[in-house]
Design brief:
The protein is of the alpha+beta class and 149 residues long. It has seven helices and four strands, in the order βααβααβααβα. The chain binds guanosine-5'-triphosphate and magnesium ion (MG). Belongs to the NDK family.
Amino acid sequence: KERSLIMIKPNGVQRGLVGEVIKRFEQKGFKLVAMKFTQASEEHMKTHYKDLEKLKFYPGLCKYMSSNPVVPMVWEGLGVVKTGRVMLGETDPAKSLPGTIRGDFSVHIGRNLVHGSDSVESAKKEIALWFKDDEVVTYTAGNNEWIYE
Ligand code: GTP
Ligand code: MG
């Protein structure tokens, strides 16, 4: 069961796009197994984006990401890490095709609306950072047999 951390960034919340992002992952056939509405500390965001700490935009990114509420979620399903990234679009919205979330709703790289784990390995780390074990829910999705052969 592959899982990915998908997180609606502060501008996604402020712009009223929480439902839109959730809708796309639901409609695709992925299964929601965890979600919260929270404002993270700057330290928490520094840990989340630790791999980028040498880059010049890192301090501003962590400040921004902790400035307002975010909606981290865990989505589960076949190929969800890679497919989730395709659904998000490229890091730079200017390179994101229409039909992707960033391509449809954003224009600036620093305000690209949604985060998605970039590998199965980083997904595991990120899920552990944002959710306690018992906040990730195990259940049977009623539509499962209509989504998988
Ligand atoms: P995330 O899903 O948020 O992790 O984005 P990503 O995996 O597509 O890109 P990456 O992890 O490399 O960068 C994390 C975030 O930093 C991006 O989503 C951007 O918001 C921001 N970022 C990346 N590159 C730049 C840049 O050159 N300038 C600015 N201002 N922000 C950047
Ligand atoms: Mg990334």
